[in-house]
Amino acid sequence: QVQLVESGGGLVQAGGSLRLSCVASGGNISSSNVGWFRKAPGQEREFVAFINRNGYITNYADSVKGRFTISRDNGKNAAYLQMDSLKPGDAAVYYCSMFQVGTTATRVRDWRFWGQGTQVTVSS
Hints:
mainly beta
């Protein structure tokens, strides 16, 4: 069974940066695309970023494009989300996902495995 553990969340002032990590166990991350999603209170879980198996293809939600960067290190079985120029609207629980089963990668149902999430809080 694949387990994903996110870390790196915390409290940051608007304009600041955080780097989230997602470490996989029980599975080889190099065989999987990876996604990042987030869920704010009262809202549905939404797509943030995507990276393909070899890291050559990335995709971002319009709301984070130019501020967030997704990356991966298959040797460490890990993926990352560098978040810069954070805004209060970025505050949410952030989740990583592995083993895409859908065609688009931007929907929750497109992914098989999820981490427990890490909280990001942005103060204004």
